[in-house]
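The instructor's notes for this session suggest beginning with a concrete chain rather than abstract definitions. Hand out the sequence below and ask the class to guess, before any prediction is shown, which regions might be ordered.
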Amino acid sequence: MHFSPAQLKVYFIAGSQNTNHDVDELISIVEQACQNGITMFQYREKDSSTLSFEDKVSVAQKLKAITSQYNVPFIIDDDIELMSAVDADGIHVGQDDTKIEQVISTCSDKIIGLSTHDPNEVLAANKIDGLDYIGIGPIFATNSKAHVKEAIGIDSLVNLYGLANHPAVAIGGINLNNVKEVLATDVDGISVISAITKTNDFAKTISTLKGEL
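After discussion, reveal the predicted structure:
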């Protein structure tokens, strides 16, 4: 799938650890999120996930069928083997995950994203050929991931986005109460976990994250 910065607009991330290990609920939430306008989805089985590799493949195949139906790019978090097994559209890695050089050499035809947190990481990312986008964050404090770095805030987001030569998505603790601050910056999109996994109104939540409400 061809990458466009517009696909970062509302970038939803989730795995079974975000739905109390209820795979059926995860699949249902992703379908509703796609129906209501998310622009990218990342399947992330990390932290307290209990799924075997075979289980992950099974879940990923179901999720890919849904995202394909809505033309939403399907990204796998830090697992080249899983990405290959389901022919996902792309892969995203953090600074402490699979080395980005390895990802680019093996996944050059895929959408490739890299997490960044500070000026040195953004400037290093600028030199990487074959990288499609970066994540910048965590913007605010978050409980959706384990081992999260300290929140950087809006001013740092603006500064890091100004240094970057790749499209960038803001991530970390973004919710309906603080999203306006993020939307006031030039960043290409917003990435969320719990804002969508815990919503009772997908249409309103996703429209708000897009800046439409």
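Then share the key points. The beta strands are 10-14, 40-43, 74-77, 90-93, 111-116, 133-136, 168-171, 189-192. The radius of gyration is 16 Å.
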